[in-house]
Amino acid sequence: MNSIELLKLNLAEVRRRSIKVWLEIPEDTLHWRPDSEAMTCLEMVRHVLESEHYYHMAIKNKGSLTEFRSPFEDQPLDSVKKELEFASPYRNDFLETVSSYSETDLSRINIDRSNVGYVRSLGDMLLRIAYHESIHTGQLLDYLRTAGVHRADIWD
Fold it and tell me: Does residue 59 come out as left (phi exceeding 0), alpha (psi in the -120 to 50 range) or beta?
């Protein structure tokens, strides 16, 4: 297994576990938040999906975007299933882009996000995308614990 295949496996595993958590959020908890400044459970799902699209565009741009109009902006925030359906073509495009890179691209291509404090190699950036999602999955598990509802077992 080469590095690209490992990156794709990591992205798939993180998403599989996220979806497991997301789909088990009770309907009456989707709009719950621990405080008035936090995202709701459903807003966090959207944040992860929308951020992946932004990061994909930033990778293609080899740096932060000066302008970004999110395709998610005009979508109603109704359900996890609708969010996943809407995000599916963007996810597929992202994975196709990841597949298009070579082993040497992972260290040769730099992604300049100095406007937010870093410049990283493509390989590092791809790992950061998965890490971002996994952090929010853990955060959602904490939300659900705090709300006193069932939490999916992601340790299979």
Answer: alpha
